[in-house]
Design a protein that fits this description.
InterPro entries: BolA, BolA-like_sf, BolA/IbaG_stress_morph_reg. By secondary structure, the chain is α+β, with helices and mostly antiparallel strands. It is built from three helices and three strands, in the order H-E-E-H-E-H. It has a single domain (about 5-75), classed as BolA-like (GMP Synthetase, Chain A, domain 3, 2-Layer Sandwich).
Length: about 80
């Protein structure tokens, strides 16, 4: 059974309460999403570790209820346009 976008958002918001989160349903099937997450929790972490934190937030549902998740993670400083 696919994961509704509200459930995905809930897991991410619980793990990253300060985050700006944008989720796109890539195939319209509730199985293939792209998530852009901007959070201070990612500061000082390599991209691989940032993604591991996101997968941990999904509590084992990746590969089951959630088939595919394209991730874009960054800190607020990285997400700000130059000069801000």
């Amino acid at each position: 059974m696919p994961m509704p976008v509200e459930e995905l958002r809930g897991h991410l918001t619980e793990a990253f309460p300060d985050a700006e989160i944008v989720i796109d349903d890539l195939a319209g099937d509730g199985d293939h999403y792209r998530a852009r997450i901007v959070s201070a929790a990612f500061a000082g972490l390599p991209r691989v570790r940032q993604h591991q934190l996101v997968y941990a937030a999904l509590k084992g549902k990746m590969g089951g209820e959630l088939h595919a998740l394209a991730l874009e993670t960054s800190t607020p400083a990285q997400a700000s346009p130059a000069g801000d």
